[in-house]
Design brief:
The complex is a heterodimer of chains A (125) and B (240). Chain A contains 4 helices and 4 strands; from the N terminus they run βαβααβαβ. Chain A is α/β, with parallel strands linked by helices and 125 residues long. Chain A has one domain: Rossmann fold (3-Layer(aba) Sandwich). The termini of chain B are far apart. With 240 residues, chain B is α/β, with parallel strands linked by helices. Classes of the chains: A alpha/beta (125), B alpha/beta (240).
């Protein structure tokens, strides 16, 4: 079993699918953390910034919130749960490298790493 | 035709404060809540000379917008303002939280606001405004994985809707921190004192203070603001 659970937000999601997508992510993250594995959530930067469809933005934002919530609870247990936001311009190898980094580093949890340039000059909580 | 403001969660402490503020500012209000007490809130406003109706709706149900549309159609009102204030909590540590409780909070606090906005948007008058009541907890909070996810999603949704419907409709969010409501009044005193100690303002916020922000965001004074989230947390979000 790999040491990291990678949870990737679907590229297309309808409002009817938002709830089930998040429940599945919650389930997978809990199982992984319970088994001592790291969690990396992958979202599209466009969705996090609200540039895509509203349901996709809702899911991306909620997944980042889930990362923060689980990281807050996992401080004593050394849970490693982070998020990686990427654009289509980011290469697969760069993405893969950052997944490895985020899953292997101790002392970093609840972090959102943003690859690409889309976040520059833009504000997102 | 009369422009109206639609407010969800109108029977709660925060909802009542927002109701009072909106009634003073808008031509008419539709007050939405699953609690039948919302009818009393509407009756109280009518007794004070405002145009107000109640709409009882379960936002976690299959068609959360039906009662709202029925009220608007019955009165012949056009929605200009939507305030998505309703929300629920089902707190528990992540490892013991049931999936049903996780899903329920996502459904009411995230999906229902999106659905209401989607349904009302085509009917909204130009210069329409939507305000989503998020939470400072979106930045992270212990024992609230469902609530944090829902409110963080609501903030991202706010940005997406703001871009999609600009320039006709402005969409913003307010993210309150610790607010003095019956829910916080029910907390053990030592827990509440610890939470207040983390707030640089040195106290809880009041529902009135949040209502003032909502009133500002829906007013022409905020006409150049869209896609933003305003944290009303007494500085908690920047505190060490």
């Amino acid at each position: 079993m790999p040491a990291v659970e990678v949870i990737e937000a679907a590229r297309e999601v309808t409002l009817d699918e938002v709830e089930s997508a998040l429940v599945v992510a919650f389930r997978r993250a809990r199982v992984a953390l319970n088994n001592g594995r790291a969690v990396v959530v992958l979202v599209r930067e466009e969705d996090l910034l609200g540039h895509g469809d509203p349901p996709a933005a809702a899911v991306a934002g909620a997944l980042v919130g889930l990362v923060r919530a689980l990281a807050t609870e996992g401080v004593r247990n050394d849970w490693r749960v982070n998020a990686l936001a990427t654009t289509d311009a980011v290469s697969a190898s760069d993405r893969s490298e950052w997944i490895d980094r985020l899953s292997d580093v101790h002392g970093a949890s609840g972090v959102v790493v943003r690859l690409g340039q889309l976040h520059l000059g833009r504000l997102s909580v | 035709m009369t422009d109206a403001a639609v407010l969800t969660g109108a029977a709660g402490a925060l909802g009542r404060a927002i109701t009072d503020r909106l009634a003073a500012q808008e031509s008419a209000v539709v007050l939405v809540d699953r609690d039948r007490a919302v009818e009393e809130v509407a009756a109280d406003l009518r007794a004070r000379g405002h145009r107000a109706v109640g709409a009882i709706a379960d936002l976690g149900g299959p068609d959360p917008a039906a009662a709202v549309l029925e009220a608007l159609d019955r009165e012949g009102w056009i929605p200009r303002v939507l305030v998505n204030n309703a929300g629920i909590n089902r707190d528990a540590r992540a490892m013991t939280m049931s999936e049903d409780d996780f899903a329920a909070v996502i459904r009411v606090d995230l999906v229902a606001p999106a659905r209401l906005a989607e349904v009302l948007q085509p009917r909204m008058s130009d210069s329409g405004v939507i305000v989503n009541v998020a939470s400072r907890a979106a930045l992270g909070s212990f024992g609230q994985a469902n609530y944090v996810a829902a409110k963080s999603g609501l903030i991202a949704l706010t940005r997406a809707l703001a871009l999609r419907w600009a320039p006709r409709i402005r969409v913003n969010a307010v993210a309150p921190g610790l607010i003095d409501t019956p829910m916080t009044a029910g907390m053990p005193e030592e827990v509440l004192n610890k939470l207040v100690a983390r707030v640089p303002a040195g106290r809880m916020g009041t529902p009135h203070e949040v209502a003032e922000i909502v009133a500002f965001l829906v007013s022409p004074a905020a006409s150049y603001i869209t896609g933003q989230v305003l944290l009303a947390c007494g500085g908690r979000s920047i505190a060490p």
